[in-house]
Design goal:
The protein is of the alpha+beta class and about 140 residues long. The chain has one domain: Aminopeptidase. It contains four helices and six strands. It has a six-stranded mixed beta sheet, with helices on both faces. Strand 5, helix 3 and strand 6 form a beta-alpha-beta unit. It binds coenzyme A. InterPro entries: Acyl_CoA_acyltransferase, GNAT_dom. One of its GO terms (molecular function) is acyltransferase activity, transferring groups other than amino-acyl groups.
Length: about 140
């Protein structure tokens, strides 16, 4: 996909050699479940993922086709870089990638901030859709 620039931030697909850097970054900020999902996205060709980069620093990412085909997510922006519009651009560009690849709809699985997605892309809730495919997921053993 074409690289997009906005306010000194580059939005692009990750390189194969960046895989471990991105996974470490996700692990440090989010969950191991997200590490697993991002790994799936990064191992596809083309990667089902976009990253936001500024001066060689990773600011955020968005993936799709990880939990299941046609599902958008996970997505995350570094806590220090939130509120700058990065999440909006990542969402819009990633959904555009999905559209280009033939998807008619992008479903945000296990949505967190529903108001965010409603605001930036007009997403609407799917009634009775949670926990959906996560209903029988493995649980962490008690510590
Ligand atoms: C959700 C997230 C990706 C948004 O990224 P961001 O770069 O801060 O988003 P933007 O700067 O593009 O915000 C766009 C608008 O959405 C609003 N918004 C941002 N995060 C929001 C949230 N969690 N809930 C509701 N609204 C939110 C912003 O206030 C902004 O509104 P404004 O234009 O009126 O000021 C980021 O907060 C994040 O990484 N959160 C933790 C991980 C997460 O929840 N990921 C999504 C899982 S489904």
């Amino acid at each position: 996909m074409e690289t997009h620039h906005s306010q000194g931030i580059i939005y692009r697909q990750p390189l194969g050699s960046e895989t471990h850097l991105i996974l470490d970054w996700v692990k440090a900020r989010f969950s191991l479940g997200w590490v697993s999902e991002v790994e799936i996205a990064l191992h596809q060709r083309p990667p089902r993922c976009l990253i936001a980069v500024q001066s060689g620093k990773l600011l955020g990412f968005a993936c799709y086709d990880t939990a299941a085909l046609g599902l958008f997510g996970p997505m995350g922006v570094d806590a220090d870089s939130r509120g700058l519009g990065i999440g909006t651009i990542l969402t819009q560009l990633t959904l555009e990638m999905m559209r280009t690849q033939g998807y008619a709809y992008g479903v945000i699985g296990w949505v967190g901030p529903a108001e965010f997605y409603q605001q930036v892309v007009g997403a609407i809730p799917i009634p009775d859709s949670f926990p959906g495919l996560w209903a029988n997921r493995l649980q962490l053993p008690p510590a």
